[in-house]
Amino acid sequence: MSTKIKGELIFSRSLVSKKWTFLLCFGSFCVGILFTDRMWIMPESKDIARPSVTEAERLKLISESCGPKTLYQKEVNRDPQALFGEVSKTHDAIQTLDKTISRLEMELAAARSAQESLVNGAPISNDMEKKQLPGKRRYLMVVGINTAFSSRKRRDSIRTTWMPSGEKRKRLEEEKGIIIRFVIGHSATAGGILDRSIEAEDKKHGDFLRLDHVEGYLELSGKTKTYFSTAFSMWDADFYVKVDDDVHVNIATLGETLVRHKKKRRVYIGCMKSGPVLSQKGVRYHEPEYWKFGENGNKYFRHATGQLYAISRDLASYISINQHVLHKYANEDVTLGAWFIGLDVTHIDDRRLCCGTPPDCEWKAQAGNICVASFDWTCSGICRSADRIKEVHRRCGEPENAIWKAKF
């Protein structure tokens, strides 16, 4: 009895415990769900940062001011002078960018040329080996006066007329950015009497540019190429000029002429001509490769006459980079024109670069149209220049202080 009662009591207690356990678990589950829901509730919209009224108005004003109608209205209401000023600034910026692109193109071509030279075993020019020093001065122009060993009297006559000497020449370089040098190579006998005479003259005046070139009349094309390459490697200038030593030049007028074309790319300035291709041997200016220019009786393409011409910096760079592959013809002026005929070059025909000697240049000077260069066509220079250039300078030269008053 007692055992049974005891067993019933035990069974009842066990049943009660299971019920309470189930209720306790179910309650815990509900509490857990409630707690989890509280943790994952999204923040109300009032807790999200919103722009203030002032900021919203500002954004609205900006969006409205950027509308096409508003922009158009602004352009219409703008001051014409201010608008013109901005257009001018934009134009200048485009030109500067254009010149920068041209310079980068030349540098890229130089790098490619150097690489090809290394691959093919060809020599590399000195200017390609030298790195441009940062802050290197930029000059307006380098004027190379082509001369010969026998032309001492011509050089002295130039020094006493249109070319400043001594301290004035140095001042010309420092203040006006104009370099002037007599250009000459070496004799066939290195270190001979001819070379020593030039060295002595250079020691006295200091106005020579010596080239790695053997002098000779039939080597003028090669001398011209070497001159431009050497001058480009030594001086960073806007223009490089070549002039013969029997030509009268007005330096200030030359500078003013070149400055007008300073912003143009690949400029080739001179008195453009087109003479006959001479196939007959023994005559002056005979062209051995006449057959390349077509049938007999043909004329050359337009090119600057050789007494004086100028090229811009990018063309001088082109010659320097490609000097080992540029072909030379018998005549120097034709050769230079041939180098540029296939390029995108601006040819400028300026007849003031080829005036006649007095009375021609004198009449033009009196009329206010001063010549850049004067010479006699019949002599391809001033006839008996050493004796006559002083008279030409007196009658056709610009005022003595013109170069110092000029603003380039």
UniProtKB/TrEMBL annotation:
Keyword check for Ribonucleoprotein: no
Q: What pathway, per the record?
A: Protein modification; protein glycosylation
Recorded coiled-coil stretches: none
What is the E.C. number? Answer: 2.4.1.-
Q: Which GO terms describe its molecular function?
A: glycosyltransferase activity
* Keyword field contains Manganese: yes
Q: Which residues cross the membrane?
A: 20-41
User: Which Gene3D superfamilies does its entry note?
Assistant: 3.90.550.50
Query: Which top EC class is named for this enzyme in its record?
Result: transferase
**GO cellular-component terms in the record?**
Golgi membrane
**How does this chain sit within the bilayer?**
Single-pass type II membrane protein
User: DUF4094 domain spans which residues?
Assistant: 17-114
* Cofactor(s) in the UniProt record: Mn(2+)
Keyword terms of this UniProt record:
Glycosyltransferase, Golgi apparatus, Manganese, Membrane, Signal-anchor, Transferase, Transmembrane, Transmembrane helix
The entry's localization annotation reads: Golgi apparatus membrane
Family statement drawn from the similarity comment of this UniProt entry: Belongs to the glycosyltransferase 31 family.
Q: What name appears for this protein in its UniProt entry? A: Hexosyltransferase
Organism, scientific name: Cardamine amara subsp. amara
